[in-house]
Write a structure and sequence with these properties.
Layout: E1 6-10, H1 17-29, E2 33-37, H2 41-50, E3 55-62, E4 66-67, H3 69-75, E5 80-89, E6 93-96, E7 107-110, H4 112-117, H5 119-125, E8 130-133, H6 137-145, E9 153-157, H7 159-165, E10 168-171, E11 181-189
Parallel strand pairs: 1-2, 1-3, 7-8, 7-9
Antiparallel strand pairs: 3-4, 3-11, 5-11, 6-9, 6-10
């Protein structure tokens, strides 16, 4: 007999911190899930609203970076029920294409929240770099590998994104504070 899996929408691409939080939360709760990569909070809540997934997970606040504005914007457009919350110690990594060196970096791309979590490090290490806000940390890694970002771009994302997209990690743990706790919420469809 094949056991069916519950669908869980995550606010990120493969290799995102939302994916990590979704996997860890599912393990903690003993849930058998199939992850659905909704890329952003709007995508998660739309899928929850339509009933495409049983649950959704996305970040709402970081201890240093503050409220995740994109989450609150999306939450204002949808009805849902908060089921639980899940804290995750987010470890930001600086990654580049394999042929790129630290001295060649001209751009830093990531989700605005990740950029806020690393602002002092970026200012100190890359004061002249152009900052590029991207929809998701892991998607920035995927898009760098696909050539959608300049080859002289460094991405800030989790270590799993580097391994998934063939990127080279130049530095682990570049967030300005440690621990770097982000709180995720788990939501389900609102039923009248």
């Amino acid at each position: 007999m094949i056991e069916s899996k519950m669908k869980l929408a995550v606010a990120g691409d493969a290799g995102s911190f939302s994916e990590e939080a979704g996997r860890l939360y599912s393990e903690r709760e003993g849930l058998h899930v199939e992850l659905v990569y909704a890329i952003d909070m709007e995508g998660v809540l739309t899928r929850v609203d339509r009933g495409d997934v049983a649950l959704g997970i996305f970040p709402v606040v970081n201890a240093y970076g503050g409220l995740v504005r994109q989450a609150f914007d999306a939450m204002g457009r949808h009805h849902f029920i908060v089921v639980d919350e899940f804290p995750l110690d987010v470890q930001q990594c600086l990654m580049v294409l394999p042929q790129c060196t630290r001295s060649e970096i001209k751009n830093i791309a990531s989700h605005p929240q990740a950029l806020r979590q690393c602002r002092r490090t970026i200012a100190r290490e890359f004061p002249k770099a152009k900052i590029i806000e991207w929809v998701d940390t892991a998607k920035a890694g995927r898009d760098l590998q696909a050539g959608l970002l300049p080859a002289t771009t460094a991405v800030i994302a989790g270590a799993r994104a580097a391994s998934l997209y063939g990127l080279k990690i130049l530095e682990h743990g570049i967030q300005d504070i440690k621990p770097n706790i982000t709180t995720f919420i788990i939501v389900k469809k609102y039923r009248v």
